[in-house]
Amino acid sequence: MSRRTQVVTAAVAVATTAAAVLVAGPGFDTARVRMSSGSVWLASNRTGTAVLADGATAELVTSVRVDEPGAALSVAQQGSSALVMNQETGVLSRIDSATLDVTRSAAAMPASPGLVVVSARHVAYGVDVRSGEVVSVDPQTVAPRGRQRLAESLSQDSVVVDDRDRLWAIDDTTGDLVWLDGDQRRTRSTGAKSGRLALTADRLALVDPERGTAELLSAETGAVTRSARTGLRAGDTIAVSGSSERSRVLIANSTRGELVVCAFDTGSCDEPVQVGVPGEELGPPLEIDGHAVVPNHSTGQATITDLTTGKVDAQRELFAEPTRFELIARDGVVFFNDPNGSVAGVLDLAGEARTISKYQRGTEGESPTSPDRPGTADQVAAADRREHKPDAGLTGPPKQTTRQAPVSPATISSASIAVSPGNRGAAGDEFELTMLPRPAGAAAVRWSFGDGSEASGGNVRHSWTRPGVFTVRAEATLPNGTRTHAETTVTIDPAQAPLSVTQLVVRRPKPVIGERVSFSADSTGKPDRWSWTVTRPGTIAPEVTADTAEFGHRFTVPGVYTVSLTITSGTRTAQSSRKFTVARGAVEAWGDNTYGQTQVPPAASSGVMAISAGFEHSLALKSDGSVVAWGDNRYGQAEVPAEVADGVVAIAAGGIYNIALKEDGSVVAWGGAVPGWNSVPPHAQRDVVAISAGMAHSLALKRDGSVVAWGDDSFGETHVPAEAASGVVAIAAGIAYSLAIKANGSVVAWGQEDYPYLKLPPEASSGVVAIAAGDAPLAMKADGSLFRWGSYPAYEIPPAARTGVASFDTSHMHFLALKTDGSVISWGEDNAGETSVPPAYGHGVLAVAAGSKYSMVLLEGLG
User: Fold this and answer.
1) Whole-model pTM above 0.70?
2) Other beta carbons less than 10 A from residue 492's beta carbon
């Protein structure tokens, strides 16, 4: 019998829930998947570059110069590479993500402000929405394959490609549905001039506000196969997208500031959700993980809506002023980007945004440098080294792609547009716009104002009737035939922008005493004064007041508080208030108490943020960042070292040892019977975002999505497979095996070969958001349902724990589940009463932890 087998026989494993992130429970962060993986190519027009942004770190990975600064670029993803179309030259470029080599075509299309590039599996399309012309391109060599006119003009919002490489669009002139099937142009009359197309679950959908319908179309004929009534009206301005998981479309109605979701499997549409002020310009919604993210170009905000409940979860300001930004979903990550500015970033479904600076302001004409935020000298140097210029350092035979082909006729890019009285005003204001070509001279000028209207002449006047950020384009043809283009943006505010508080934000929703709570608000209009008060029933004086847009406070008394905010803009005011709970954060335990593991010390009776149960010892994380330990101390596991007296953000109790995650991203370990169990490797001393402890081995999740493992390796549980070397979002260490969740919701398992837990069930292939791995694993799907696999059929999940679960934990042979209503369910072996949940814990529970023959809960403790 091996040493490890002897240890396991004597003491069966205990493991923490996946990722051991702070606190699990209603209103708290649970051990769920983080949207922190994947990368995407983004346009940076002012620097003439495409930049690669990393979703896990929210950092700039590299930038590749494809054209001169100021170029108007359209970027499409082609696998891990990028296709970039320059609207001013018609040149299409491909960036190889592995080598960062740039391959350029000759002018694939005539220069036009209406050029876009869209990518399919085996072909790419360059599309001129103004002329209706389409060129098909080899996505690897960017060599043109063929060119034809698809329509007189196209709706840019409705150019899509399906999974069979077919290009679909709406003819702006006739309203017909037009598409390319190989080289064959096909069409079907719809009359949907204001219609919008979207792909949903690889099927095409057409939304037509004139008829008030959403229609699912045949991929072969374009005929209607299913339909739903949307409630849209003629004249509604809409933006549409489709779900990749379900047969449904998401409709943002700018006219009424609403989000409408229509499902083709039921043939019905949900009640509209108010996501903006009527008249504000909403962009195409983006669906991810059961939520819709709606961009608001008039406010620079994104609104996150739960599609199951139909409620707005969060509203986040991404840009300080109206901005026509884009939202992109990639590998489970939501990216936002202003193509014409320096700011991009990553947005999660809680409304938290991490900003990425594509270049330093003031260096638009130079190569992008390190991000506009603090960083080490090594980070800055690394960013500089990663920058790539396509014509620098080329070796080997010349490539046809390294030099830009000449464009004919000649195009002058040195032109500008003057806007008077300025580039910002209100709906209904009149603006004077003048095209200033260089060299100056008589020119025939054509204008487009971004609202569907056009004009001609060197000096024109125009007014916009609705709020939004509008791109104004002018094209001048000089007497010698030379053309010049210019572009600017004009921001239009509502004529009388209402002042209102749309959301009061309390982070976290259920804090504990001693924890710093952050308060902020989302509002419409432009407040210039804020007045906050936080009160508690039964007291005369407010708990705290503030006059800043955001503030923080630490509460010393548990209870239900009310936060109120009054905002002022000139003579107008608006007010809002909401209640929130400050919990005591008290630990209670029941079951076996052989070593005092259920005898909770006074230090853990309040101000606790997280709990973790080992084999026969317990841990609690306090709101001041300190750790409390009690129970079995035969291996020093209950002796808290000085390193975890403060600054701890997560804890994990192993079999007879512990690990803690510090706020600087380092890991501390103590206790254990065998050298090496608590020897944290160098790779886990920085950039760690989550931890998990098993019987005798530990896991750490790095910021880059990789897993570090150490400790006992008798069964290969610390041999991290290639699948877990990147893209991991949650971890769990079990008795002799390890689990990880990938960004796509699939589970990876490794360790003891004959363990039944390495044979993953079909449910583990997608949609998993949380895991726990003790002697037997549990996993949770996005809808809050649990599933398990392996042996022990007697311990089937009870019906009450199959839905509505917020968090869970598993130990040797018993399981705990915390419901969203704050109640606890337990099942499995009951040797010492560990699964007999006391009636007092039928409500008000914030977190659960399962030890060997005992259980713990973290309570609100409001009396």
Assistant:
1) no
2) 27
